[in-house]
């Protein structure tokens, strides 16, 4: 059963482009999508991918990849869509741009990268496809493929086994792959735009050359299996030569504050991807190799700490985070992890100064705010915790736990109307509507002349729909 699931996952990865075309074909009859329709299709496609893959959700990992995307995306001449970047937990060597500015990286591709220039170059290339709206333009070619044939291949990719093998072999599959691939003009334009975006943003455009060469080596190591990225973004000799020529002629803008920040933080981001998205034994081997060269490597200790934290070994994780923090005392992600490990081992007093320092350095950091408020709450420093939790309610998306903790603190302070209101909000967001109604009604019973709260309670009760 497990082997079958793996086969299904790999087949799905190899035909992500097919997903795009099927979605576009099924929803549109025009050769070129409107901005509005492409935005709607992008959201639908995102939901489909989320249903099939596990995404990395660690706050600093998500913040880094999206920050880099937004920074480079400033170079796009006509920004049709807001940009959103995602890291998928999968060893496949792939990345792709979906409709409406959604860009996906598989952790396997990031793992083979060594520099931010490589990551920025691939991201810039994908933004070239976004800027050129190449997926929308492919609609015209998709019409040459019968919908029944496309649906059959999609079924084969999802079902797997002998059915998929029968569907995906022979001239039909080869013909469809030829139709669905980006055209040479698409790739050339994405290369040109990508190299331009990367170089203007302060990154070395040769990063694209080096990462493509690594992919070609991966093909050799994996006994001839083509990395998925090279299937959807062919790295033929002619194209490689053109990229090298363009890279030679592309100047690099002087490094600015933003590009320098991403360069300095890349090793930590890479460690997060390795530790949180990779197979455990593989990640441990990589970090141990770093420790053989430098026994106090903050990157290696941070990565090992993240692995142990995932496994619930907070005490062992803390020992690694403390070493990492000694070498990188001002790193917010390391301060976050150290503070959290102290919390997880019940050492709230020790977590407090670290988290306060981190929030002072990064006042808008919601992850730090949540941790600090929890430590204050555990130490019964309710007023300070309350201030932070209330602030978090104005910083969407708001975690459900914020309302629960507000309810708890107000209850300890004897402010029952506010306590029940926030607990009602918590259960409403949890879709436990009977409990939500109970707390909202209790809040009304205990309310003593707070007209604004009464209005909020009436609105909340009227908004409850079974």
Give your account of this protein's structure.
The chain has 466 residues and is mainly α. It has a domain of 176 residues. 72% of the residues lie in helices and 3% in strands. A 3-stranded mixed sheet has the order 1-3-2, sandwiched between helices. Helix 22 packs antiparallel against helix 23, helix 23 runs antiparallel to helix 24 and helix 24 runs antiparallel to helix 25. The longest helix has 21 residues. It is globular and about 75 Å long. The chain starts with a helix and ends with a helix.
Short summary:
The chain has 466 residues and is mostly helical.
Would you report the number of β strands? Answer: 3
Helix and strand element order: HHHHEEEHHHHHHHHHHHHHHHHHHHHHHH
Mean pLDDT: 83
The unreliable regions are 13-31, 140-180
How much helicity do the residues have?
over 70%
Distance between the termini: 38 Å
Strand arrangement, major sheet? 1-3-2
- Our Rg estimate from Cα atoms comes to 25 Å
Secondary structure class reads mainly alpha
In terms of DSSP E residues, the strand content is under 5%
CA-based shape:
globular
Tally the helices: what do you get?
A: 27
The biggest sheet amounts to: 3 strands, mixed
